[in-house]
Amino acid sequence: NSIHVTVAGMVGTWWFEPEDASCCCSPSVNNSFLRTITTSFGSICFGSLIVAVIRALQMLANAARANDDGNFLVCIAECILSCLASIVEYFNKWAFIYVGLYGYGYMEAGKNVFTLFRNRGWEAVIADDLINNTLFLISVIMGGIMGSIALIISLVSDLFEDAGGNEKGIAFALGFVIGLVMTSIAMSTIASAVNAIIVLFAEAPAEFQQ
Q: GO CC annotation: what is one (predicted)?
């Protein structure tokens, strides 16, 4: 979430003051990061805490269902908590963009960004956002490539010889996981930038044309 807010702040600077965000080493990067870990950090923690609490309640509901042979009320509670967690995570995705762009508090940011989309009639646009699916596919492909590289390494070297008789499978799995995780982290910055651009294009299209 901190990366999400930092990237949003950088994109906001590039949108309104392009000369201040002309490269990856520009002052806007440091300024955005400093805002994220200082004035905006409370909003980030609050939004993250809400999700964490709901996820903890989900785990309790899962444990209760396992110990109670699938009690009907527990199943309903688990379903409600799962839906609630998805809603809050979706809310966070756009609220944190406004936090990074303008420094609003968490609740105010969420209210403002969804009011913006409603006034623009963009509910369908954000609902049909396919960027996350595309970036996930890229991450999986990169994971497969890294897994294949690890498999080749296991064939031409003795690096995985201590893995027993399944060194090829272990090598591929290890490479796949490393590639998937590292690429997902990199792709998350792209997703944050795209979401920030969607918000900015809805709110200030004239600045982009200039």
A: plasma membrane
One-letter amino acid of 162: D
Task: Specify the pLDDT at position 1.
Answer: 81
Give the whole-angstrom CA distance, residue 122 versus residue 106.
21
Q: Is the pLDDT of residue 150 over 80?
A: yes
Per-domain boundaries in the chain: 2-128, 129-188
pLDDT in tens, 25-47: 677 788 888 888 888 888 889 88
The DSSP string of the chain is -HHHHHHHHHHHHHHH-GGGGSSTTSHHHHHHHHHHHTTTHHHHHHHHHHHHHHHHHHHHHHHHHHHTTS-HHHHHHHHHHHHHHHHHHHHHHHHHHHHHHH---HHHHHHHHHHHHHHHT-HHHHHT--HHHHHHHHHHHHHHHHHHHHHHHHHHSSTTGGGGGGHHHHHHHHHHHHHHHHHHHHHHHHHHHHHHHHHHHHH-HHHHH-
pLDDT digit string (tens) for 92-140?
888 898 888 888 888 888 888 888 888 887 776 666 667 888 899 999 9
Rounded Cα–Cα distance for residues 131 and 154 (Å): 35
| Rounded Cα distance, 129 and 94, in Å | 12
Q: What is the pTM of this model?
A: 0.78
